[in-house]
Design goal:
Elements (H helix, E strand, L loop, with lengths): L7 E10 L4 E6 L12 E4 L2 E8 L3 E6 L1 H6 L10 E6 L18 E11 L2 E7 L13 E4 L2 E8 L3 E6 L1 H6 L10 E6 L1 H14 L8 H6 L5
Antiparallel strand pairs: 1-2, 1-6, 2-5, 3-4, 3-6, 4-5, 7-8, 7-12, 8-11, 9-10, 9-12, 10-11
Protein backbone atom coordinates (compact mmCIF):
# COMPACT_ATOMS: atom_id res chain seq x y z
CA UNK A 1 0.00 0.00 0.00
CA UNK A 2 1.23 3.49 -0.89
CA UNK A 3 0.07 7.09 -0.40
CA UNK A 4 0.86 8.64 -3.77
CA UNK A 5 3.40 11.05 -2.27
CA UNK A 6 6.50 10.71 -4.47
CA UNK A 7 9.66 10.43 -2.38
CA UNK A 8 12.26 10.64 -5.11
CA UNK A 9 12.78 10.78 -8.87
CA UNK A 10 14.96 7.87 -9.93
CA UNK A 11 16.75 7.21 -13.20
CA UNK A 12 16.56 3.99 -15.21
CA UNK A 13 20.16 2.77 -15.53
CA UNK A 14 19.48 -0.26 -17.71
CA UNK A 15 16.60 -2.27 -19.15
CA UNK A 16 16.69 -5.95 -20.07
CA UNK A 17 13.61 -6.77 -22.14
CA UNK A 18 12.03 -10.05 -23.07
CA UNK A 19 9.13 -10.42 -25.49
CA UNK A 20 6.64 -9.47 -22.77
CA UNK A 21 8.69 -8.94 -19.62
CA UNK A 22 11.59 -6.83 -18.45
CA UNK A 23 14.17 -6.32 -15.73
CA UNK A 24 14.83 -2.78 -14.56
CA UNK A 25 17.94 -1.43 -12.87
CA UNK A 26 17.07 1.91 -11.29
CA UNK A 27 19.48 4.42 -9.79
CA UNK A 28 18.28 6.30 -6.71
CA UNK A 29 19.24 6.96 -3.08
CA UNK A 30 16.52 7.99 -0.63
CA UNK A 31 14.18 5.01 -1.10
CA UNK A 32 17.11 2.65 -0.49
CA UNK A 33 17.97 3.92 2.98
CA UNK A 34 16.08 1.09 4.71
CA UNK A 35 15.36 -1.31 1.85
CA UNK A 36 15.45 -5.09 2.13
CA UNK A 37 15.06 -7.79 -0.49
CA UNK A 38 11.38 -8.39 -1.23
CA UNK A 39 10.27 -4.85 -0.33
CA UNK A 40 7.74 -3.08 -2.51
CA UNK A 41 8.59 0.15 -4.32
CA UNK A 42 6.16 2.07 -6.52
CA UNK A 43 7.74 2.87 -9.88
CA UNK A 44 5.60 5.38 -11.79
CA UNK A 45 2.63 4.07 -9.83
CA UNK A 46 3.37 0.37 -10.38
CA UNK A 47 4.08 -1.79 -7.33
CA UNK A 48 7.32 -3.68 -7.99
CA UNK A 49 9.35 -6.01 -5.79
CA UNK A 50 13.02 -5.35 -5.02
CA UNK A 51 14.98 -8.43 -6.09
CA UNK A 52 18.49 -6.99 -5.75
CA UNK A 53 19.87 -3.74 -4.37
CA UNK A 54 22.94 -1.74 -3.39
CA UNK A 55 23.31 1.67 -1.78
CA UNK A 56 22.67 3.41 -5.10
CA UNK A 57 20.55 1.06 -7.25
CA UNK A 58 17.88 -1.61 -7.15
CA UNK A 59 16.62 -4.27 -9.53
CA UNK A 60 12.96 -5.09 -10.15
CA UNK A 61 11.38 -7.61 -12.50
CA UNK A 62 8.29 -6.75 -14.56
CA UNK A 63 6.07 -9.74 -15.36
CA UNK A 64 4.03 -10.05 -18.60
CA UNK A 65 0.74 -8.84 -17.10
CA UNK A 66 2.38 -5.67 -15.79
CA UNK A 67 4.35 -5.25 -19.02
CA UNK A 68 1.12 -5.23 -21.03
CA UNK A 69 -1.04 -3.17 -18.66
CA UNK A 70 1.29 -0.26 -17.77
CA UNK A 71 3.65 2.22 -19.39
CA UNK A 72 6.74 0.54 -17.95
CA UNK A 73 7.43 -1.09 -21.33
CA UNK A 74 8.26 2.39 -22.70
CA UNK A 75 11.12 2.94 -20.22
CA UNK A 76 14.64 3.22 -21.58
CA UNK A 77 18.05 3.92 -20.02
CA UNK A 78 17.97 7.53 -18.87
CA UNK A 79 14.20 7.62 -18.28
CA UNK A 80 13.11 9.30 -15.06
CA UNK A 81 10.60 7.58 -12.77
CA UNK A 82 8.59 8.46 -9.66
CA UNK A 83 9.56 6.33 -6.66
CA UNK A 84 7.79 5.69 -3.36
CA UNK A 85 8.36 3.07 -0.69
CA UNK A 86 5.42 1.14 0.70
CA UNK A 87 3.61 3.08 3.42
CA UNK A 88 4.90 2.63 6.96
CA UNK A 89 2.22 1.91 9.55
CA UNK A 90 3.67 4.55 11.89
CA UNK A 91 4.04 7.29 9.27
CA UNK A 92 1.96 10.26 8.16
CA UNK A 93 -0.73 9.62 5.57
CA UNK A 94 -0.25 12.53 3.18
CA UNK A 95 -2.08 11.34 0.05
CA UNK A 96 -4.73 8.64 -0.30
CA UNK A 97 -4.88 4.84 -0.36
CA UNK A 98 -2.87 3.73 -3.41
CA UNK A 99 -2.39 0.04 -4.19
CA UNK A 100 0.14 0.30 -7.01
CA UNK A 101 -2.18 -1.76 -9.26
CA UNK A 102 -2.71 0.26 -12.43
CA UNK A 103 -6.25 0.34 -13.87
CA UNK A 104 -5.42 1.68 -17.31
CA UNK A 105 -3.05 3.76 -19.39
CA UNK A 106 -4.10 7.36 -19.97
CA UNK A 107 -2.98 9.85 -22.62
CA UNK A 108 -2.25 13.52 -21.96
CA UNK A 109 -4.32 15.51 -24.44
CA UNK A 110 -3.81 19.08 -23.19
CA UNK A 111 -1.33 20.96 -20.99
CA UNK A 112 -1.77 24.60 -19.96
CA UNK A 113 -0.29 26.91 -17.33
CA UNK A 114 -2.58 29.04 -15.17
CA UNK A 115 -0.76 31.21 -12.62
CA UNK A 116 1.43 28.83 -10.58
CA UNK A 117 -0.38 25.64 -11.65
CA UNK A 118 -0.15 23.33 -14.64
CA UNK A 119 -3.47 21.85 -15.74
CA UNK A 120 -3.55 18.58 -17.66
CA UNK A 121 -6.37 16.85 -19.48
CA UNK A 122 -5.92 13.07 -19.50
CA UNK A 123 -7.90 10.73 -21.73
CA UNK A 124 -9.09 7.68 -19.78
CA UNK A 125 -10.92 4.60 -21.03
CA UNK A 126 -14.68 5.07 -20.66
CA UNK A 127 -14.89 1.78 -18.75
CA UNK A 128 -13.41 3.59 -15.74
CA UNK A 129 -15.65 6.68 -15.81
CA UNK A 130 -17.77 5.33 -12.95
CA UNK A 131 -14.67 5.40 -10.71
CA UNK A 132 -14.14 9.13 -11.19
CA UNK A 133 -15.60 11.65 -8.73
CA UNK A 134 -15.29 15.47 -8.89
CA UNK A 135 -12.81 16.61 -6.23
CA UNK A 136 -12.03 12.95 -5.63
CA UNK A 137 -8.62 11.29 -5.69
CA UNK A 138 -6.76 9.73 -8.59
CA UNK A 139 -3.21 8.44 -8.99
CA UNK A 140 -1.26 9.45 -12.10
CA UNK A 141 2.19 7.84 -12.50
CA UNK A 142 2.18 7.16 -8.77
CA UNK A 143 1.27 10.73 -7.79
CA UNK A 144 -1.80 11.37 -5.64
CA UNK A 145 -3.86 14.11 -7.29
CA UNK A 146 -7.29 15.72 -7.05
CA UNK A 147 -9.74 15.49 -9.95
CA UNK A 148 -10.72 19.05 -10.95
CA UNK A 149 -12.90 18.15 -13.90
CA UNK A 150 -14.54 15.17 -15.56
CA UNK A 151 -15.58 14.87 -19.20
CA UNK A 152 -16.62 12.04 -21.49
CA UNK A 153 -12.98 11.75 -22.51
CA UNK A 154 -11.38 11.67 -19.07
CA UNK A 155 -10.23 14.01 -16.31
CA UNK A 156 -8.51 17.30 -15.64
CA UNK A 157 -5.88 17.47 -12.92
CA UNK A 158 -3.68 20.29 -11.65
CA UNK A 159 -0.04 20.26 -10.58
CA UNK A 160 1.13 22.64 -7.87
CA UNK A 161 4.77 23.87 -8.03
CA UNK A 162 6.00 21.18 -5.61
CA UNK A 163 4.50 18.41 -7.74
CA UNK A 164 5.91 19.99 -10.89
CA UNK A 165 9.40 19.92 -9.41
CA UNK A 166 9.33 16.67 -7.43
CA UNK A 167 7.63 14.26 -9.86
CA UNK A 168 8.03 13.25 -13.48
CA UNK A 169 4.61 14.76 -14.25
CA UNK A 170 6.22 18.18 -14.42
CA UNK A 171 8.06 17.05 -17.56
CA UNK A 172 5.13 15.38 -19.31
CA UNK A 173 3.79 16.78 -22.58
CA UNK A 174 0.81 16.32 -24.90
CA UNK A 175 0.81 12.81 -26.31
CA UNK A 176 2.67 11.26 -23.39
CA UNK A 177 1.15 8.21 -21.72
CA UNK A 178 0.68 7.79 -17.97
CA UNK A 179 -0.33 5.06 -15.54
CA UNK A 180 -3.76 5.64 -14.01
CA UNK A 181 -5.07 4.13 -10.78
CA UNK A 182 -8.58 5.12 -9.72
CA UNK A 183 -9.50 5.55 -6.07
CA UNK A 184 -9.87 2.10 -4.51
CA UNK A 185 -12.81 3.31 -2.38
CA UNK A 186 -14.75 4.18 -5.55
CA UNK A 187 -13.99 0.75 -6.99
CA UNK A 188 -15.15 -1.07 -3.86
CA UNK A 189 -18.33 1.03 -3.74
CA UNK A 190 -19.17 0.27 -7.36
CA UNK A 191 -18.57 -3.43 -6.78
CA UNK A 192 -20.87 -3.47 -3.74
CA UNK A 193 -23.61 -1.55 -5.54
CA UNK A 194 -23.45 -3.67 -8.69
CA UNK A 195 -23.75 -6.87 -6.67
CA UNK A 196 -26.63 -5.49 -4.61
CA UNK A 197 -28.52 -4.40 -7.73
CA UNK A 198 -28.53 -7.98 -9.03
CA UNK A 199 -30.37 -9.20 -5.93
CA UNK A 200 -34.18 -8.90 -5.77
CA UNK A 201 -34.06 -8.03 -2.07
CA UNK A 202 -32.75 -4.56 -2.86
CA UNK A 203 -30.49 -2.97 -0.26
CA UNK A 204 -27.70 -0.54 -1.22
CA UNK A 205 -28.36 0.86 -4.71
CA UNK A 206 -27.26 3.88 -6.73
CA UNK A 207 -30.70 5.43 -6.17
CA UNK A 208 -30.43 4.90 -2.43
CA UNK A 209 -26.97 6.51 -2.37
CA UNK A 210 -28.20 9.49 -4.41
CA UNK A 211 -31.19 10.03 -2.14
CA UNK A 212 -28.86 9.98 0.87
CA UNK A 213 -26.63 12.65 -0.66
CA UNK A 214 -23.60 10.48 -1.41
CA UNK A 215 -23.79 11.01 -5.18
CA UNK A 216 -24.25 14.17 -7.18
Amino acid sequence: MFTGIVEEIGTVHSVKKGSSSMRLLITCSHVLTDVTKGDSISVNGVCLTVSEFSTTRFVADVMPETFKATTLFTLEPGSHVNLERAMAANGRFGGHFVTGHVDCIGEITAVRSIENAIYMDIRIDSAFQSHLVPKGSITIDGTSLTIFGISEQGVTISLIPVTQADSVLGYKRIGDYVNVECDILAKYLERIVSRKETKPSGGLTMDALAKSGFLE
